[in-house]
Amino acid sequence: MNIDGKAWRTIWLEPDSGLGSYAIGVIDQTLLPHQFTTRTLRSCAEAADAISTMVVRGAPLIGVTGAYGLMLALQADPGDTSLAAAFEQLNATRPTAINLRWALERVRAKVQPLAPAERAEAAKAEAAAIADEDVAMCDAIGNHGLAIFQQLAAARPGARLNVLTHCNAGWLATVDWGTALAPIYKAHRAGLPIHVWVDETRPRNQGASLTAYELAKEGVPHTVIVDNAGGHLMQHGQVDAVIVGTDRTTRRGDVCNKIGTYLKALAAHDNGVPFYVALPASTIDWTIGDGVAEIPIEARSAEEVTHIQGRGADGAITTVQLTPTGSAGFNPAFDVTPARLVTGLITERGVAAATEAGLQELYGND
């Protein structure tokens, strides 16, 4: 992540005061885009809180944070009871994204057979490996997505390529590069004339606050739009492709992403606009077939609907109420887009059809 000329990852190890122990550094995403602040997480409880309050967010990043959270727990107490309690505490923070449980199970499997004195170091190594693998996978996703954008651009030589995205699936949602935004960054760096329509993504405005922040720092031309403008732009030929991320993908190719994604997929389908979903292998849930029926949808606080955070004229970050006092709010954080609406799944291994056979072609031997 390039921020004012300095390269950042979204999560990193920091030496802690204890002999041989470590803390975790993260970017506080709740204060972006108005304030860039880092936080130090020194305990499993702090890691769990950072995930649940969305200091860190995005399926791949919360998986890595969870993995490091187990390391923090094992530094304090490497026993079996501590490991089990930390696993449950971290796993309960965000129920929809499959990456979190996947990363926790991977670290647990690594450390359980070891003597307690060896567990914290092993957890640190495994969490670091997961983080590095995430960067490599996102880099590869970017290359495969770039090929798609190059084909679209070649069909319209000299014309600007307009891509619409929803929520934030960029650097801030992963360790680096991002999923849906990785092909955009690759295209921009390759000199393609790419422009991004950025959905604001209510209620937490991850598009307006996070995606726009990233694109601005990278110098990618972009325009923030209200969520309901996407269909209008597609009707008037101003969107060449839609690309989004996903928090959980079923073995049949259904994708679960930020609330509002399904409506964009319907509009894209109606207007003949290709709809791509970018994801690493860790986001595939092979145990689930029907996403609408089987994926648990996180319901977050109604206050995210009734209130909004921004920066006032005095420069202070503040929260204001939008709705009448007493009006109820309902806040499902995700929806499911059926595979039939997905043009292709852009993975680190290539582009798959949004079908069980398509995914098996890439991952069947794993």
Describe this structure in words.
The protein is an alpha/beta fold and 366 residues long. The protein has 2 domains: 2-133, Four Helix Bundle (Hemerythrin (Met), subunit A) (Up-down Bundle), CATH 1.20.120.420; 140-363, 3-Layer(aba) Sandwich (Rossmann fold). The chain is built from 12 helices and 18 strands. Strands 8-7-6-9-12-17-18 form a 7-stranded mixed beta sheet, with helices on both faces. Helix 2 (59-76) packs antiparallel against helix 3, helix 4 (98-111) runs antiparallel to helix 5 (116-154) and helix 5 (116-154) packs across helix 6 (182-189). It is globular. It starts with a strand and ends with a helix. The relative contact order is 0.11. The model has no long low-confidence stretch (mean pLDDT 95).
SSE arrangement, N to C: EEEEEHHHHHEHEHEHEEEHEEHHEEEEEH
Task: Give me the secondary-structure category.
Answer: alpha/beta
Return the domain count. Answer: 2
**CATH top-level class of the largest domain:** Alpha Beta
What's the total helix number?
12
Instruction: Give Rg in angstroms.
Output: 20 Å
> Spans with pLDDT under 50 lasting ≥5 residues?
none
